[in-house]
């Protein structure tokens, strides 16, 4: 496997495990959150999917976007299934874009997000995207534990 294939594998595996967690959230607990400042379960699912869309555009732009109109923003939050169905096309385009990068691209292309405190190589940025999703997967596992809901086995 080359580096791009490994990054794709990481992103796909992270998403596969996130979906296991997301689908384990009972419908009647989608609006649950541990405190007033936190995101609800469903808001966190939306946040992960919408962030991937933003990151995709930021990579194409080689940096943060001056303006961002999210196709997710105007949609009502209904269910995990509706969020996944809506995001699927965007996710596939993101994966397709990643598959086009060479090892040299991963090192040489710089993504300028100095507005939020960093400039990183494309490879680093792609790993950060997977890490972002995995952090939220861990948060949702904690939510499920706190709600006393059975947690899925993600370490298969």
Shape: globular
Order of helices and strands: HHHHEEH
Mean pLDDT over the full residue set: 97
The main β sheet shows up as: 2 strands, antiparallel
| Number of distinct helices | 5
Q: Give me the side-by-side strand order of the main sheet.
A: 1-2
Strand content: 5-15%
- Counting DSSP E segments of at least 2 residues, the number of strands comes to 2
Short note summarizing the structure:
The protein has helices at residues 3-23, 41-61, 80-99, 103-108, 122-146, and strands at residues 110-113, 118-121.
Structural notes for this entry:
The protein has 156 residues and is mostly helical. The protein has five helices and two strands. The protein has helices spanning 3-23, 41-61, 80-99, 103-108, 122-146; strands at residues 110-113, 118-121. Strands 1-2 form a two-stranded antiparallel ribbon. The longest helix is centred in the C-terminal third of the chain and has 25 residues, at 122-146. The chain starts with a helix and ends in a 10-residue tail after the last helix. The mean pLDDT is 97.
Secondary-structure map:
Blueprint: H1 3-23, H2 41-61, H3 80-99, H4 103-108, E1 110-113, E2 118-121, H5 122-146
Antiparallel strand pairs: 1-2
Helix pairs in contact: 1-3, 1-5, 2-3, 2-5
């Amino acid at each position: 496997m080359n580096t791009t294939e490994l990054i794709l594998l990481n992103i796909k595996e992270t998403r596969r495990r996130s979906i296991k967690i997301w689908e384990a959230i009972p419908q009647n607990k989608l609006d649950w959150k541990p405190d007033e400042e936190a995101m609800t379960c469903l808001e966190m699912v939306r946040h992960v999917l919408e962030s991937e869309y933003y990151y995709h555009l930021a990579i194409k732009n080689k940096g943060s976007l001056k303006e961002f109109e999210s196709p997710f923003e105007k949609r009502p939050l209904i269910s995990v299934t509706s969020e996944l169905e809506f995001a699927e096309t965007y996710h596939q385009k993101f994966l397709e874009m990643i598959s086009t990068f060479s090892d040299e691209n991963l090192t040489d292309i710089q993504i300028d997000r100095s507005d939020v405190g960093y400039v990183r190589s494309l490879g680093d940025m792609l790993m950060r995207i997977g890490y972002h999703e995995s952090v939220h997967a861990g948060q949702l596992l904690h939510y499920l534990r706190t709600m006393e809901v059975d947690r899925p086995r993600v370490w298969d």
